[in-house]
Amino acid sequence: MAANTDPDLVVALDAVTVTRDGNALVRDVSWQVELDERWVVLGPNGAGKTTLLNLAAGRLYPSTGTVHVLAERLGGTNIAELRTRLGLVGGHHVVRIPPDETVHDAVLTAAWGVLGRYRESYDAMDDARAGELLARWGVAGLAGRRYGTLSDGERKRVQIARALMTDPELLLFDEPAAGLDLGGREDLVRRLATLAADPDAPAIVLVTHHVEEIPPGFTHALLVRDGAVVAAGPVDQVITGDNLSDTFGLPLSVNRIGDRYTALSHPLPS
Ligand SMILES: Nc1ncnc2c1ncn2[C@@H]1O[C@H](COP(=O)(O)OP(=O)(O)OP(=O)(O)O)[C@@H](O)[C@H]1O
């Protein structure tokens, strides 16, 4: 099948519907992610966010419409090969890193796409890259620890380092801050902001429920509700009280504090 000819389009959904048991998980969604863009996908529970991420990851095929990922059309390409070009972090995509694996090996083994060190051989460059990524994500001091002994926040950062090990062309995050305490969330948001600002970083799509988790430097937002797009476009135009109220189905006001957002519901009428 024909490849998408625009090399700048990392993800392209055209009139995509996904149905299961007669229900539409996403309905008539058209959405494009370009090479240098960092997208946040926001919406309430069950809105279809993970379904969109699974389409972008080539883990799910549309029932109708077309999906191109990295200029390859889903259904007409070798999915195994495509997946080697993507990085996935969090949610249901969490790679099951063995608890007795060292943190260093948990990142290193991504070079072979395996979990758990066996007989693969790694060269010094792989070792150096794993060490450099652990340092960049603030967990170099944990390199010798067993993965199973890490806190949730530390695990998340190791997972991100692992996802980056193969130099992916598209990085997908499903609720990366879920379960983190306030300090862990803030640390992660700041590190994601640093990643977003890196011109060599891949295109990024991050799914979240909370505007507080939008890292500074993220360029675009997609709001979804009941499987349909409520709004899509530049973050500062899309993250508004009206749009969020429509998305979450309750009256919300949005505040921007510096380069961060917060959202609160209006007081209930007495
Ligand atoms: N295999 C399936 N069969 C039937 N319904 C499904 C299936 N997978 C997901 N759904 C439903 O599709 C809807 C969208 O699911 P999805 O996981 O994409 O939502 P989400 O926005 O990621 O939700 P959450 O924020 O709770 O993770 C939900 O109502 C879910 O119950």
UniProtKB/TrEMBL annotation:
This is Iron ABC transporter ATP-binding protein. SUPFAM superfamilies: P-loop containing nucleoside triphosphate hydrolases. The keyword Lipid metabolism does not apply. One of its GO terms (molecular function) is ATP binding. PROSITE patterns: ABC_TRANSPORTER_2 (PS50893). It holds the Pfam family ABC_tran. It comes from the Bacteria. Keywords: ATP-binding, Nucleotide-binding, Transport. It comes from Actinocatenispora sera. GO terms for cellular component: membrane. Residues 11-251 form the ABC transporter domain.
